[in-house]
Structures are given as C-alpha cells and as structure tokens.
TrEMBL record:
Mn(2+) binds at residues 27, 74, 157, 161. This is Superoxide dismutase. The keyword Transmembrane does not apply. GO terms for molecular function: metal ion binding; superoxide dismutase activity. Its EC number is 1.15.1.1. It comes from the Bacteria.
C-alpha cells in the first residue's frame, strides 16, 4: 500500500507570523510530498511496500533511506509545532529538562548552539536515551534518531528550505521563531516510561 503525505495538523496559515503559509506550501506541499513520492516509487512491488514508514527507514539504505528518513523526519517535525505552542515545558518533561539541562532556557541555548553549528543541511533533536537521560543530537542530511537507540522527542529542521523564504540565511532568527511554536504537549507524549 503506498504511503500518503500526512496532512498538516493545523491550517497552512496557522504558524504565521513565525512560519509563513508560503514556507509551509513549499516545505510540506513540495519537499515533504517529494520524499513520500520518492519512497513510493522505490518500494512499489517490493516486500517493503507493506511496511510502515518507520520500518522502511530502519531497513533501507542509499537513496531509499534518504527519501524515507526525510519523509519520516518531516512528518515528526510538523507534530513538534503548534500555533499555540511555545512557553515552558511542564510536568514530567519539564522536570527531566531541569534535571538534564538545568532549566528550559539552558536547553534552548544548547539546542541553538548545536543548530547553529550544523554546517549545511540537517536536523537537531531532543532525544531520550535508553537510560532515560535527555540529550541534544544533530544529524546531517537525512539522518534520524530512528536508526539508533534513542527516542526522538523534538525535531528542528535546519535544512535551508525550512526557513529561507521567511528568514533568508538567518538561521538564528528562525530558531527564535521555532521556540515560539514548539508543541511541548506533543514532545511530552514521546517520552518513554
């Protein structure tokens, strides 16, 4: 069964002024759709065609891995954003962030430092290691925590197409906007027990 492009969990204009409808149209409607279409073209008629996207990512390599990982990363990223997001993480998530980073402000500072240090294209993640510890991880190109032991909690797309329309090459301004729309409720649901 072919994969489908997941719908955005909000209207294409809902993240304005932080991310414009034009950015979402290009990023979701063009780039994300392109990755889904590329996966479908490569798995048609193979045993992978019946697997969920996460398993395709884990079992593939080369150009199929690149397309599948990007399709999964983007679907996860959209869930990490919300028009009424931002603020401070609460509950267990807030406690874990305080334990591992000191507080949410220090988490953001470290996350931004890592994001600004990614040369070229990639992703920055808040992950939970198998021992329960939280950490920040950068992946290059289509890299994803799905191929390791850590659980992804939060993703930030630092490919230029994620922010160029709105912020040109000013990744720092994009990161400032990103924190205003982070969906902490979704992030909290990704925590392992």
């Amino acid at each position: 069964m072919p994969l489908e492009l997941p719908r955005l969990p909000y209207d294409r204009t809902a993240l304005q002024p932080h991310l414009s409808a034009t950015t979402l149209d290009l990023h979701h409607g063009q780039h994300h759709r392109g990755y889904v279409d590329a996966v479908n073209a490569r798995i048609e008629g193979t045993e992978l065609a019946e697997l969920p996207l996460e398993e395709i990512v884990r079992q593939s390599q080369g150009s199929l891995f690149d397309a599948a990982a990007q399709a999964w990363n983007h679907a996860f990223y959209w869930q990490c954003l919300h028009p009424r997001g931002g603020g401070e993480p609460q509950g267990r998530l807030g406690e874990l962030i305080s334990r591992h980073f000191g507080d949410a402000k220090r988490l953001r500072e470290e996350f931004d430092r890592v994001a600004l240090g990614v040369f070229g294209a990639g992703w920055v993640w808040l992950v939970q290691h198998p021992n329960g510890a939280l950490a920040i991880q950068a992946t290059r190109n289509a890299g994803t925590p799905l191929t390791g032991q850590s659980t992804p909690l939060l993703a930030c797309d630092v490919w230029e197409h994620a922010y160029y329309t709105d912020y040109q090459n000013e990744r720092g301004r994009y990161l400032d906007a990103f924190w205003k729309i982070v969906n902490w409720d979704f992030v909290a649901t990704q925590l392992r027990d």
